[in-house]
Amino acid sequence: MKYINNNFIKSTLLLSLTSISLYGAPSGVYLDAAGGVGFGDVQSTPKVQYVYKQGYIATVALGYQANLFRFELEERYKSDKLYSASEDGKYSIGVNGDLVSNSQLVNVYYSGYNTTSSVFSTVGVGVGITSLSLQDKITESGILSGQAMLSLGYPITENFISSLKYTYFYSLKSDQFSGQGDGSVTFTLRYIFD
């Protein structure tokens, strides 16, 4: 009898938590736009290591939200100012120019909604391809990339949702560039169509 009661309690608790999560989660096609800053880091080519400063990032996405899950296609643009360059780590010189990345990604998100607060959290992952351009001299396309995302969102209205998102983005090693990861923080506005 005790075993049955424990299972009943666990099942009821799980059902209650699921109901709380499902409450208030919107569904539909959406358009998403974001802007923010990326953190400085290092990008290496086979011979030279470049240090870049904090840059800016812009993204647009078209997707579909199905209750707690979102699926989207994202266009990502990031531009960083180059700061210095060193060859084989022997010496460093100041350089001018930009490190520009342009990515196309497929993302999947999971959001946690509840009845006690309008603020909700979201986690997501994405994969895609990236084009890199260094000082408009060294360029390469089709670099396999991935990202992991964590955000806090707030519904301004039924259709407009704002969020603050942290993204860790990584591009795999290619012929012209080493594998490289960096972080960014963006402010996002999303409109869900009726």
Name its key features:
single chain, 194 residues, mainly beta, Porin, eight-stranded antiparallel barrel, 1 helix, 11 strands, elongated
Q: What is the N-to-C order of secondary-structure elements (H for helix, E for strand)?
A: HEEEEEEEEEEE
Reported by name, the CATH topology is Porin
The biggest beta sheet is recorded as: 8 strands, antiparallel, barrel
Strand element count: 11
Mean pLDDT: 80
**What is the second-level CATH architecture?**
Beta Barrel
Q: Give the class from helix and strand content and strand pairing.
A: mainly beta
Reading off the top of the CATH hierarchy, the class is best stated as Mainly Beta
Major sheet: order of its strands?
A: 1-4-5-7-8-9-10-11
What oligomeric state best describes the polypeptide chains here?
A: single chain
Q: Tell me the strand percentage band.
A: over 45%
- Total domains: 1
Shape: elongated
Helical amount: 10-25%
Radius of gyration: 21 Å
What does this structure look like?
The chain is mainly beta and 194 residues long. The chain has a single domain (26-192), classed as Beta Barrel (Porin). 11% of the residues lie in helices and 65% in strands. It is built from 1 helix and 11 strands. The protein has an 8-stranded antiparallel β-barrel. Strand 8 and strand 9 form a beta hairpin. The longest helix is centred in the first third of the chain and has 21 residues, at 2-22. It starts with a helix and ends with a strand.
